[in-house]
Amino acid sequence: MGKRSHFSLLLLGGGARAAYQVGVLKAIASVIPRNHGTPFPILCGTSAGAINATALACYASCYHLGVKKLEWVWKNFETDLVFRSNFSTLYRTLVKNLSSRNDGEYYNKTISWLDNTPLQELLSQLLDLDRIQTNIDSGYLDAVSVTASSYHSGDSVCLYQGKAHIKPWTRAKRRGLHSPIQVEHLMASSAIPMVFPSVELHGEFFADGSIHQLAPLSPAIHLGADKIFIIGMEQPKNRFSFVGEQAVPPTGGAIVGHLLDTIFTEALASDIERVERINQTISYLSEPVRKKCGLKKVQTLQINPSKNFNEIAAEHYMSMPFSIRSLLRILGINNKTVMNSSLISYLLFEKAYCQELIQLGITDAMNRMEEIKSFLEIDQLN
Fold this sequence. Notes:
The protein is α/β, with parallel strands linked by helices.
């Protein structure tokens, strides 16, 4: 194992919110020697975070280049690079999937509201996934993992590619499966149920990895990490859910956004708390006992946004394609109620919004840079 093999980066899901991760990563690049490899030999991602983590894995030999490539994509994003948003395709897809179908069609098609074929095409063009194994063989990378949720078993499945000593694992409702990362893995990990189509891998159909992910830290720990840097999505509460002291009844869009927030953020807080309790217990054990039991302390450092994504998204609401805004009206989301739902902040794949999130990530990371440098032992890089 390399001298940094215990460092991991954990990137969770959040749709368009994942642009924030790029800002944090860019800030870290400012204190990493140019042409240096990744400071994170273990890269773990879920949903949109899986795409960012995999892109970094492709450029593990040069961290600056990997971040630069990511930033270019996110700074130039538009909705049609993720899913087809023109009226005819959007409503044809909706009608086709919501209407009854005969048995023969049922077994050959998956249900989704949106067609995310453009994202699959974009990833196929931009990612040279053969470089992952090259970077593993060259010692720049220990492992990269993509988490998806199995519709069949209900398990959270970590699909990983890494060094030979890393073996598959099985725990309660979660397992690790060695599987060289392909575009299909990324599509599966980011397949929000009903919104995007499920993906078949290894004889199972998979959905967004944030579903059933009760232990987000688990993949990094199983892959060998004991220092995990987390770019989170927990944010200041939306003050627009109240008028004075009076709570505002939630619209359909607010309810959907609330469910997404629960899926993408709440499990992490519980898992970090669990790790802290285990660390405290381990501190009472002698070193021989720890080794005998195979226990180790795990340190985490999490950085979260200092501003509310919903408020930022509301400022860019009109940049969202008209067809999508029309569809969201069914859920009660319009230019007057947009601040009451976090749904927009997940779906607003437009460059002005993404650029603002990137800048927020840079600012937040720079404000905590001394803490980040200490945790990642950046001063020891050469």
